[in-house]
Design a protein that fits this description.
Layout (H helix, E strand, L loop, with lengths): L10 H8 L8 H11 L12 H7 L4 H19 L6 H35 L3 E6 L2 E6 L8 E5 L7 E13 L1 H4 L5 E2 L18 E2 L4 E13 L10 H4 L8 H31 L4 H15 L4 H18 L2 E3 L3 H6 L4 E5 L10 E7 L2 H10 L4 E2 L5 E2 L2 H12 L5 H5 L5 E6 L4 E8 L2 E8 L1 H5 L6 H15 L4 E10 L7 H4 L4 E9 L4 H12 L3 E5 L4 H11 L9 E4 H6 L2 H7 L3 E5 L4 H12 L4 E5 L5 H6 L2 E5 L5 H5 L3 E3 L4 H42 L6 H12 L1 H7 L22 H24 L3 H22 L16 H19 L1 H6 L7 H30 L1
Parallel strand pairs: 9-18, 9-21, 18-20, 19-20, 21-22, 22-23
Antiparallel strand pairs: 1-2, 1-3, 3-7, 4-5, 4-6, 4-7, 8-23, 10-17, 11-12, 13-14, 14-15, 15-16, 16-17
Helix pairs in contact: 3-5, 4-5, 4-9, 5-10, 5-26, 8-9, 8-10, 8-25, 9-25, 9-26, 10-25, 18-25, 25-26, 25-27, 25-28, 25-29, 26-29, 26-30, 27-30, 28-29, 28-32, 29-30, 29-32
């Protein structure tokens, strides 16, 4: 059966063709079909193999320059009638291969981390298996499955609708039609009908904006309509973050300078007669290769990927790499209340009614919650609280809930703030309506005194932080559920139900942390203003010294953008707001130049999530549409997790900053040492020695600095201003001073050794080991090394020990010592080298002390 013909089949024929059942497949049958036909995924671009990643390491121009240098060093002696000189060439090639191996390991680890995050962020679907509605990964859907759709869901496969209630689907991703299409269960005659006209179908990659439906999976993966254009999707390029672009610019700028210095070293060595032409050439090439920080961006990518993995374990899945950088600069967190700042465990605590039986019926029927296999209510927290109340007080049974039947319904939406169902009652239909008290009361025929009494009771309940729902009903003969206004008017008021969703205990501490970190917390909720104020005051969002206030959506609606701009910094709580108000709030803060994080879980939240600097989707209650529009998804829907993620973002940026400072200062030390000694008329290091120093010091210490734990005051500082350059003038000066100090210590060691082979050996060891001591000092850009807890920095100590052993191996292993033209040191000479390295560490500590004193002034 061709894909385009599914819309011409009746529901019964479609079920027969797929071998499905209206009650869904069995788990065993689903597993069998999944094994036969593969997962419901679009084919991705071809992934790199390990071999491919390895050979990609040789695409850098400087690597080929180094290989050419190895060849020149090996074969140049033949021109003067000498034999091949393979020692230096062998060392160069070992360094090249080791660099490629390390690069392969680093890149494959980053790819694995990102792949794991993709799996964690994979969308889910609701399918019937063994007669029960269960949530499964969309990739596990098979042809013949029956799925449930509701507003906010992404359509997980190509579907033939079996039943639908006011279903509308936004299909612009597939058809280009920007207006949501109203769907219906019909059988169409035209086999060649355009996709946009197939009203009984829903296609993978589109989004449900309204209503609900049950549908049959007729195509998955590459067999879907979206699969037909998957080739275009698979060709997307890897994302480069703003920080990586900045570092690429720094690398390019430094590369030009280093190449100029290398050329100068070559000419000076050649013209002075200090070095043979070949040795002068090799030194210049090795200096250029060692000093150009070509691996800097790769290290940063690994740090970002590892940070993303760490965040995922803490409950925050980063969907877009630039979000990691932006997190550390967050200045305002706009958060939903329910489930994010509160526990999302609504409990009915108070009822006000004159007809308990009628209210209990309304609570049970005007309710979309269902019972799972264990008898637990599943659905919206407000509605599950109603079911829990009825079951707990034995006002109905599990069977009563499972056997509910409807004559019609009008789903809830945020504009109406009402939901409606009809059930058969006598010869007609009884309509139950549930929703916001102020809206529902306006639809009821009540005397003014009765209405005032109900409003007063509503306010009194809300003042105690209760969430209040109102219920109404009417009996009709033949309701027209397409006429929403008619159905939901002329109601008889039944009663009020009050429930509470207590604040999360950890949210109070998170709010306190926000304030200490210079971040403003803002609550946005659809709840009554009195309820919102009570919760916000309890959490510490309102009150205290900032004198911020709460306003309603109506007050916000009455403000112009100019008025909102004037007041936005004084508003801590927005109550009774619609989702579209969120975009205005984000825009107002951004016009103030603030970095804004915004949470959301509904379809209508998507524009605000996209507009925010950090859009935060809810992993539990959030719709697929809201998650897709987000930069970060919370697996626990917890405000405290956002604050943890901000702290992690700051930690990652700090670590990247100190890693890059370390790499640049190390390279500066090598360049200055060789340049100065060449100008002084002697050769400090051989080409192979320079390359070895670069290999040993640039890899493990840099990665270790990238995974350093957060500094103790990471959330005690103001957010980083994104307008400030990655390195300011003070940072560049520090890099230059550290590089100069390393060069000076290496030259000092050379003279202490009396020049020659001994002096060169001492300079070689001092330059390399002083960089390792510098890495230890760089573990914090603010705090002294003498105040840290050693056990908290395991990676740094392992990197220090491993790199030191590698460096010492070329001294203590005779064949390597000979290969690198080194000599063994005496005990006193070793003491001199260690003393010089300790001076390097003390120099960095002195820099930090001066910075701390300057910051206090």
């Amino acid at each position: 059966m061709e894909k385009q013909q599914w819309h011409t089949l009746t529901e019964r024929d479609a079920l027969r063709e797929t071998g499905g059942d209206a009650k869904g497949l069995s788990r065993a049958e689903a597993v069998k079909r999944l094994e036969q036909n593969g997962p419901n995924k679009l084919t991705e671009g071809k992934k790199k193999t390990l071999i491919g990643i390895f050979f990609a390491q040789f695409q850098d121009l400087m690597i080929w320059v180094l290989i050419a240098a190895a060849a020149v060093s090996a074969f140049a002696p033949l021109l003067s009638g000498k034999s091949l000189e393979l020692a230096d060439a062998a060392i160069i090639m070992v360094v090249v291969i080791l660099n490629a191996v390390l690069g392969t390991i680093q890149e494959s680890r980053a790819e694995a981390a990102l792949d794991a995050l993709k799996e964690m962020a994979a969308p889910n679907a609701k399918a019937y298996r063994d007669g029960h509605l269960v949530k499964i990964p969309s990739a596990e859907l098979v042809v013949g499955d029956v799925v449930a759709l509701e507003a906010g869901d992404s359509v997980p496969a190509d579907l033939r609708l079996l039943e639908c209630n006011s279903l509308k689907v936004e299909e612009s991703a597939l058809t280009g039609e920007s207006v949501p299409v109203e769907k219906m269960v019909v059988t169409l005659d035209d086999p060649g009908a355009p996709l946009g006209d197939r009203l009984n179908m829903a296609f993978m990659g589109t989004s449900v904006t309204y209503g609900r439906a049950g549908a049959l999976v007729v195509a998955t993966g590459m067999d879907t309509q979206m699969g037909a254009i998957a080739g275009q999707l698979a060709s997307t390029e890897k994302e480069t973050t703003p920080l990586q672009k900045k570092l690429n610019q720094i690398t390019n700028m430094l590369s030009i300078g280093v190449l100029g210095i290398a050329a100068l070293v070559f000419l000076l060595g050649l013209l002075s007669g200090l070095l043979e032409p070949l040795e002068s050439f090799m030194t210049a090439v090795s200096l250029a290769v060692a000093a150009i920080p070509e691996g800097m961006v790769a290290v940063v990518t690994i740090v970002l990927a590892m940070g993303m993995s760490r965040m995922a374990k803490q409950g925050a899945i980063i969907r877009r790499l630039p979000a990691v950088e932006t997190l550390g600069s967050t200045q305002v967190i706009c958060s939903d209340k329910t489930g994010t700042l509160t526990q999302n465990k609504m409990t009915v605590t108070e009822i006000s009614t004159t007809d308990e039986a009628l209210l209990e019926a309304a609570m049970a029927h005007c309710n979309d919650s269902v019972l799972d296999e264990t008898g637990r209510a599943v659905g919206d927290p407000t509605e599950t609280a109603l079911i829990d109340y009825l079951l707990k007080n034995k006002l109905c049974t599990d069977e009563d809930i499972r056997n509910r039947k409807r004559a019609g319904e009008i789903p809830f939406d945020s504009d109406r703030k009402l939901s409606t169902v009809g059930i058969e009652h006598g010869a007609g239909v009884r309509i139950f309506v549930k929703g916001a008290p102020d809206v529902l009361l306006s639809r009821c025929g009540m005397t003014s005194s009765a209405g005032i009494a109900v409003e007063k009771k509503n306010e009194e309940m809300a003042s105690r932080a209760l969430r209040v729902l109102a219920f109404g009903y009417k009996d009709v003969q033949s309701p027209n559920f397409s006429n929403v206004r008619e159905i939901e008017s002329g109601l008889t008021f039944i009663g009020l139900v009050g429930m509470i969703d207590p604040a999360r205990p950890e949210a109070r501490e998170a709010i306190k942390t926000c304030r200490e970190a210079g971040i403003l917390p803002v609550m946005i909720t659809g709840d009554h203003k009195i309820t919102a104020v009570a919760i916000a005051t309890d959490l510490g969002i309102l009150g205290g010294r900032d004198r911020r206030v709460a306003i309603t959506g109506a007050e916000l609606e009455a403000m112009s953008d100019a008025e909102l701009d004037k007041r936005v910094e004084s508003i801590a709580v927005y109550a009774r707001v619609a989702p579209e108000h969120k975009s205005r709030i984000v825009a107002a803060w951004q016009r103030k130049g603030r970095i804004v994080s915004m949470t959301g879980d509904g379809v209508n939240d998507a524009p605000a999530l996209k507009a925010a600097d950090i859009g935060v989707g809810m992993g539990i209650t959030g719709t697929d549409v809201s998650k897709g529009a987000s930069d970060m998804v919370l697996t626990d829907d917890n405000f405290a997790t956002i604050v943890l993620a901000v702290g992690e973002g700051r930690r990652i940026f700090d670590n990247i900053h100190k890693t890059v400072r370390f790499l640049l200062s190390s390279n500066a030390g090598e360049v200055l040492a060789v340049l100065v000694t060449t100008l002084m008329g002697f050769s400090l290091l051989k080409a192979t020695q320079i390359l070895w120093i670069n290999l040993v010091t640039d890899t493990f210490p840099a990665l270790a600095l990238g995974v350093e734990p957060a500094e103790k005051d990471v959330m005690g500082r103001k957010p980083r201003d994104q307008k400030v350059p990655f390195f300011d003038g003070r940072a560049w000066m520090s890099i230059g001073l550290v590089g100069a100090a390393e060069a000076a210590l290496a030259i000092t060691a050379y003279f202490w050794g009396g020049g020659g082979a001994l002096g060169s050996t001492m300079a070689f060891l001092t330059l390399s080991l002083s960089q390792l001591f510098a890495a230890v000092g760089f573990q914090s850009e603010r705090h002294s090394i003498f105040n840290i807890k050693l056990r908290e920095h395991k990676a740094l100590w392992l990197a220090f020990a491993g790199s030191t052993l590698l460096q010492l191996s070329v001294i203590f292993i005779p064949p390597l010592r000979k290969l690198f033209d080194l000599v063994m040191l005496t005990g006193f000479e070793w003491m001199q080298v260690v003393a010089l390295c300790l001076i390097m560490l003390l120099f960095i500590e002195a820099q930090k002390l001066v910075a701390r004193i300057r910051d206090k002034d």
